[in-house]
Amino acid sequence: MSNANPSPSSLPGDPAAGAAIKATDRAHVFHPWAAQGRIDPLAVAGAEGSYFWDHDGNRYLDFSSGLVFTNIGYQHPKVVAAIQEQAGRLATFAPGFAVEARAEAARLIAERTPGDLDKIFFTNGGAEAVENAVRLARLHTGRTKVLSAYRSYHGATTTAIHLTGDPRRWPSDQGAAGVVHFWAPYLYRSPFHATSEEQECERALAHLEDTIVFEGPGTIAAIVLETVPGTAGIMVPPPGYLPGVRALCDRYGIVLVLDEVMAGFGRTGRWFAAEHFDVVPDLLTFAKGVNSGYVPLGGVAISAEIAAGFEDRPYPGGLTYSGHPLACAAAVATITAMAEEGVVEHAARIGADVIGPGLRELAARHPSVGEVRGLGMFWALELVRDRDTREPLVPYNAAGEAAAPMAAFAAACRKAGLWPFVNMNRTHVVPPCTITEEEAKEGLAALDTALSVADTYTTGG
After folding, report:
1. Would the pTM count as exceeding 0.85?
2. How far is 114 from 109, CA to CA, in rounded Å?
3. Strand 145-149 to strand 59-62: parallel, antiparallel, or no bridges (unpaired)?
4. Distances in Å between the alpha carbon of 25 and those of 325, 336, 412?
5. CA 52/CA 74 separation, integer angstroms
6. Residue 53: helix, strand or coil by DSSP?
7. Of 153, 140, 177, which is closest to residue 302 (Cα–Cα)?
8. Which residues of 270-292 are buried (b: 16+ CB within 10 A; e: fewer)?
9. 69 exposed, middle or buried (CB, 10 Å; 0-12, 13-18, 19+)?
10. Gyration radius of the chain over CA positions
11. Nearest-CA neighbor of 380 among 438, 449, 426?
């Protein structure tokens, strides 16, 4: 399934080139989410399939898929060729025109979205998709408030960051954006003192309805939820929860927005994660996997009812590069290749048969693993100091010395040739959806080694 990858012994090494790139980067690049003087970015020389490598000849199996976007792997030849062909034919054009790549990308996306989400508004990425979904909901309902979950991430632009429920929101949140947060289900650390999925679902829905009632249903435009929360911890909702949210939205005339920026396009073993729960939202946001991030692209899939409201009145929003031809050509090639190569089905199989069982086997042997959860190519290991008390391996939002155990775990992963996705006290297993069984087992072996380091920080370590 994955592209052929060079072996470590065949990788070219040019340490001088790497040092020069890092020096220029340090002098001129202002990096996101970072204290600039405390970071040391790796200088990347190349990437292919599930791997990338540096200028010193070190190769890494990427268990982060970039930022969980290279669903089809790096340098897929069909996607690269499509970008090259489009650049030679029509490299760019304004969004107000009908362009083949844009129209075809919209058609292919609409074919795969659930229900009647057949109109596609293109953006440059996920945050802008969320911004426009909220704008659509507010215009459609004439209401202003929006509800979103704690333990969520929706982007870094103004509305998206206010919707976000993790600490990245704090520096930008003045509490005046019309956003109200609520607790979504998370049985392992249940805010509802539940002991079963059924209890967690029932109590989470009761809490959400209470929030709606006390906030005033007539003031709420939308509920925005990640279908399966991503960066916040890959907490797969219990059976019945999302249908229950859908029912609450219907009861109170609220627009349901499902954020599939991370969970969409094969990541969970379905084209969209909503398929797992038989739920059709009113608006669905996407980005990342739509073209594996080869050229920035995102969007909102819009229901027929909401789209009809803009037949005779203009939609007051747009972007200069909405539906950029290069990005859309990459999306057409990505979706087509995924369909022809069975990538979505492959992700489901490898997740169910290799990664899921492999992670549970690791959990049985490593006291630092408190819980394994996920589906498809979307998994999380929750690392703890004590399995009985469920004390996290590092405190919530830890930094500096307090975060040392997770830093040591991540360093051990890299030393073993694995590039991990680490957030707070978790490591997420989110490789390309094209990863082979052999590559997945290679990654699990590296995790096995690194978890032995995490084990040394447990109460029994």
Report:
1. yes
2. 10
3. unpaired
4. 29, 36, 25
5. 8
6. strand
7. 140
8. bbbbbbbbebbbbbbbbbbbbbb
9. buried
10. 22
11. 426
pLDDT tens track of the chain, all 461 residues? 645 566 655 666 789 999 999 999 999 999 998 999 999 999 999 999 999 999 999 999 999 999 999 999 999 999 999 999 999 999 999 999 999 999 999 999 999 999 999 999 999 999 999 999 999 999 999 999 999 999 999 998 888 898 988 888 888 887 767 999 999 999 999 999 999 999 999 999 999 999 999 999 999 999 999 999 999 999 999 999 999 999 999 999 999 999 999 999 999 999 999 999 999 999 999 999 999 999 999 999 999 999 999 999 999 999 999 999 999 999 999 999 999 999 999 999 999 999 999 999 999 999 999 999 999 999 999 999 999 999 999 999 999 999 999 999 999 999 999 999 999 999 999 999 999 999 999 999 999 999 999 999 999 77
Nearest residue to 131 (alpha-carbon basis) of 151, 146, 111 = 146
Residues 286 and 298: beta-carbon distance below 8 Å? yes
Structure tokens at 67: 């930022």
- Write the DSSP assignment of 355-378 as a string of letters: IHHHHHHHHHH-TTEEEEEEETTE
Return d(Cα 138, Cα 222) in angstroms, integer.
Answer: 8
> Are the C-beta atoms of residues 461 and 24 closer than 8 Å to each other?
no
User: 99: Cβ–Cβ under 8 A, 6 or more apart, which residues?
Assistant: 90, 93, 323, 325, 328
What sign has the CA pseudo-torsion 381, 386, 388, 390? negative
